[in-house]
Design brief:
The chain is mostly helical. The chain has helices spanning 2-10, 12-24, 27-51, 61-77, 83-92, 98-130, 133-137, 139-161, 163-176, 180-190, 199-218, 221-249, 255-274, 284-297, 300-326. Helix 4 (61-77) packs across helix 15, helix 6 packs across helix 13 (255-274) and helix 13 packs antiparallel against helix 14.
Length: 336
């Protein structure tokens, strides 16, 4: 909130211009963006539905759809830190073992990162070849961000599909946690009491839970491919909000320059923003959007950032709050 206040007064003229531009948009622009957001969670419902298909009891699409919105509610109120826990809880509440729910959530995170990285890399290559000025100007930094994203997804994938890599990581973690100050930091991050909890055991348990779930899903490669493609479709729907915003702000009907390019730029911005350290990516995506969009689209870049955040964070929170308010934590569906 402090950062938002500082930005508001520092860039008051830009933000005022952005809100003026938003007010000039026809209602159809907001409806299209809302549709993209709703479809995003429709696809998320199919993803969770697919991820539970090998459980004793598969979640229905409707339950999975509500699960995605439920997590969106927690994502905003906790700045991302509780959305994963919320998903584990919601899945386990539907007759799925808590350990399996944890594994599903962890593997889902890998597919999410994989989808974002693939779209970001494809966007970067396409825009660079097309000669988009901002991508070429910041090519070195974008390439560095791409390498970091690829490294993270490669590491996560290796941990999830290789027992040897998981063993090695658990061994390294055990050695590092013998250093007192690292153990203290880890215990704070994990919320483990140093006197009562074993930090090393907590971390190694998480590594092996992740690995077991990854190996289980890796046996069903068709499912892995399907979920990855669905993740890419899901994120593309959100990226389309940038295209809708820029296209609506221009009087020239050029869908490639004012819809496709902003969409690809948002894919690149999102990939880089997610590897920058900040709660729920707050401020990171906006920063990259400002770098990549402003030279091309002027003050509309602020409109893109505001519109994107509103429909990817605030609207899901509102919809998720309805799910949260109407959900009975004590209730479980009855099944024979």
């Amino acid at each position: 909130m402090i950062a938002l206040v500082i930005v508001y007064f520092w860039k008051n003229d830009v933000i005022t211009a952005a809100f003026r531009e938003i007010r000039s948009f026809p209602v159809g622009v907001s409806l299209l963006s809302l549709t993209a957001t709703v479809l995003h969670f429709v696809v998320e419902g199919f993803i969770i539905h697919n991820m539970t298909m090998y459980e004793e009891r598969q979640m229905t699409w409707w339950e999975s759809f509500r699960c995605g919105l439920y997590c969106a509610f927690y994502k905003l109120i906790s700045l991302g830190s509780l959305s994963g826990i919320a998903e584990m809880y919601y899945i386990s509440k539907h007759d799925i073992d808590a350990g399996r729910a944890s594994g599903i959530t962890l593997v889902q995170y890998v597919y999410q990162k994989l989808g974002i990285t693939i779209l970001g890399v494809l966007g970067f290559i396409s825009l660079y070849i097309s000669g988009v000025s901002t991508v070429r100007e910041y090519a070195g930094w974008v390439f560095l961000g791409t390498l970091v994203a690829v490294f993270i997804i490669t590491l996560l994938t290796l941990i999830s599909v290789s027992k040897k890599v998981a063993d090695l990581l658990a061994f390294i973690a055990g050695k590092l946690l013998k250093i007192r100050f690292i153990e203290k930091i880890a215990s704070k991050l994990l919320g483990v009491d140093e006197k009562e909890g074993d930090v090393t055991k907590e971390i190694t348990d998480k590594i092996y839970t992740f690995n077991d779930a990854g190996l289980y899903f890796w046996e069903h490669k068709d499912l892995c491919l399907r979920v990855t493609l669905l993740k890419m479709l899901k994120m593309s729907l959100w990226y389309s909000i940038a295209g809708i915003t820029v296209y609506s702000s221009k009087s020239i009907a050029d869908p490639i320059t004012y819809f496709l390019i902003p969409m690809l730029l948002m894919a690149v911005a999102n990939m880089i923003g997610t590897v920058m350290v900040a709660p729920a990516g707050a401020g990171t995506i906006e920063f990259v959007v400002a770098l990549l969009f402003t030279p091309l689209y002027g003050s509309t870049s602020a409109t893109v950032a505001i519109f994107y955040r509103f429909f990817s964070l605030v609207v899901p929170f509102v919809l998720g709050s309805v799910v949260f308010a109407t959900d009975n934590p004590a209730s479980k569906p009855d099944h024979d």
